[in-house]
Amino acid sequence: MTKLSTKHLLGIKDINADDINLILNTAENFKEVINRPIKKVPSLRDTTIANLFFENSTRTKLSFELAEKRLSADVINFSSSTSSVKKGETLIDTVNNILAMKVDMVVMRHPNPGAAVFLSKHVDAKIINAGDGAHEHPTQALLDAYSIREKLGNIKKKRIAIIGDILHSRVALSNIFCLQKLGAEVMVCGPSTLMPKYISSLGVKVEHNLKKALEWCDVANMLRIQLERQDIKYFPSLREYTMLFGLNKELLDSLSKKIIIMHPGPINRGVEITSDVADSSQSIILEQVENGVAVRMAVLFLLAGRV
Ligand code: CP
Fold first, then answer.
1. Is-contact 209 250, C-beta < 8 A?
2. Please, which residues bridge with residue 52 across strands?
3. Confidence at residue 236, expressed as pLDDT on a 0 to 100 scale
4. Mean of the per-residue pLDDT values for the chain?
């Protein structure tokens, strides 16, 4: 298979295991490219890509921009905080004005779930979802899967625990879809108040005891408490959350086997993870970031249809 089954990348739910494996295999080639002395290839010359960020980002925004530049695309960047959105311009008007400048692909992060799907139905460009509210973050799940595969050789039958604020996490949802499609066993762990009501219907194990989750898994993906998305209090205090669900070195070293530690970032050091764990030899957090560029190059290249 050399082509994706989809025109857009709106979520992992919409794509199949062949699509995911094609992206991961293509990313392997691009990882080799970005480690060469000359890191650029002409694959997307004459393609114009707009990065539209309606919500803050460090990793995803810079990673997409770098991926686009490594592929020789022309790139324009839009940030809602400095745009005419502040004067009341709508999403569709904003994007159609940008597309009038002959843009081929749109990478969009937006605080509203479904924003990327909505856009794909109203504008004539290929859309990549760079995170839509608490819904999906497909390229994060793909780079996480790539990083696990790189470290463990295979994802099938591996045990992955996703730990923390599952309720507000687009990373959790996209990871669950992606890892299950690749044959992994997935567990979610956190306080019951931070679990979506529908979680069991996704076919994941649910655990509320951190030590048990860590003993079960090969990989622990630690998630941030998303205070900015919490309209009410879901636990008594951050201190109590950290005592029950924070990963520290003592706990990590007490486990019967060495597990891999992941985190999508940004990290709240000392809350969900201590610095000595985040910076330990078991952590692959910065490898995730490096792999993000290769994975996004693969997504852009395959969606552009230049195979
Ligand atoms: N992992 C992630 O999406 O980070 P940013 O919010 O910094 O893009």
1. no
2. 78, 108
3. 78
4. 95
**Residue 1 burial (C-beta neighbours within 10 Å; 0-12, 13-18, 19+):** exposed
Domains delineated in the chain: 12-136+292-303 (3.40.50.1370), 138-288 (3.40.50.1370)
Token pair 């994975």 is found at: 295
Residue given tokens 């852009």 in the structure block: 300
Q: Is residue 60 annotated as part of the catalytic site, yes or no? A: yes
How many Å is the Cα radius of gyration of the chain? Answer: 19
Cis, peptide link before residue 113, omega less than 30° from 0: no
pLDDT, position 232 = 64
In this prediction the pTM is 0.96
Query: What distances in angstroms separate CA 206 from CA 34, 161, 191, 291, one per listed residue?
Result: 38, 9, 10, 29
Q: What is the rounded distance in angstroms from the CA atom of residue 42 to the CA atom of residue 179? A: 32
For CA atoms 212, 215, 220, 224, the dihedral sign is positive
Q: Which residue from 225, 222, 161 is spatially nearest to 193, judged by alpha carbons?
A: 225
264 Cβ below 6 A of ligand 1: yes
Task: Report which ligand 1 atom has the smallest distance to the Cα of 55.
Answer: 6
Distance CA 63, CA 55 (A): 15
- With a 6 A CB cut-off, is 275 part of the ligand 1 pocket? no
CB neighbours of residue 45 within 10 Å: 11
Task: Tell me which of 2, 82, 86, 87 is the catalytic residue.
Answer: 87
